[in-house]
Amino acid sequence: PTHTYGTAGVFVSSLILTSNLGCRDTATRIALVNSVPLSTITASGALTLCSGDSLLLTAATGGYNYVWSTAATTQSITVKTSGTFSLTISDTLTGCFSTGSATVTVIPSPTVFAGNDTLVDFGKSINLNATGAGIVSWNWSPATDLNNAFIANPTSTPQGTITYKVTGMSINGCTAEDSIMITVIYEYKVAVTNLMTPNGDGYNDKWLIDGIEYHPNTEVIVVNREGQQVFKSESYDNEWDGTRSGNVLPDGTYYYIIKFENDTKIYKGAITILRENSK
Predict the structure, then answer these.
(1) CA distance 242 to 261
(2) CATH 2.60.40.10 domain position(s) in the chain
(3) Residue among 135, 128, 126 at smallest CA distance from 114
């Protein structure tokens, strides 16, 4: 006779034989039933993943010998492709083994194009236009100077050169990203008055640099014929009245230097102060 044991353990089995004449004999055996190692496979995430992502498959039971269908002999393997990954786990002491498998599906990730790097004049706006098949949601980062960071074609009015990253997500949750750099061109369009008549009549009493208000943190320096500095401002606001530390400067020609914050170019010219015979 045969018997199948459903659990591991030590079992005592007895076989009693009885002859036709009524004679009996008993045979006793001790059976050691070893446990079979569990071949359960755990995954570090969902078995469906996006291309480019990876998944860690691990044999749930430690301390045994492992042979994966990839030929790996470690307890864990990292997979990046679709397929069924089989595992044979065995106990070298008892010879017991079991098998298991996990099926992984890789979904192609979408492609996203943010557009070519471009230039824009300071103060101007530019329309961005990201493209990508099957994209259901967009996210631009940083959201600085954008009218809407969650659409494919936001409008940017950059205050300085900036690189935007756009991430697109497909309906299956896979993402892709791309970036675009917008270089701001600073075209300094200002009109510098070359004559001021600070005689107190309320007309042309201040030195006017038309458009300077659009360029904060602009350094303005004025010197006399000897090169001595008579006026300086780190953020000129059209308030210089032809004085030096409150003292009236003599009529004559002076020379200015204008340095815009984001420009290496230095702008130079002359300004004439005329009080006499200007009323």
Answers:
(1) 24
(2) 41-107, 118-185
(3) 128
The predicted model scores a pTM of 0.55
CATH architecture of 41-107: Sandwich (2.60)
Q: Domain 118-185 belongs to what topology?
A: Immunoglobulin-like (2.60.40)
Beta strands 162-170 and 9-18, pairing class: unpaired
206-263, pLDDT tens digit by residue?
A: 999 988 887 888 899 999 999 999 999 998 999 999 999 999 999 999 999 999 876 6
| CB environment 160-197: b (16+ within 10 A), e (fewer) | eebebebbbbbeeebbbebebebebeeebeeebeeebb
What contacts 220, CB < 8 A, 6 or more positions away?
A: 209, 231, 232, 233, 236, 240, 256, 257, 258, 259
Cis peptide before 158 (omega within 30 of 0): no
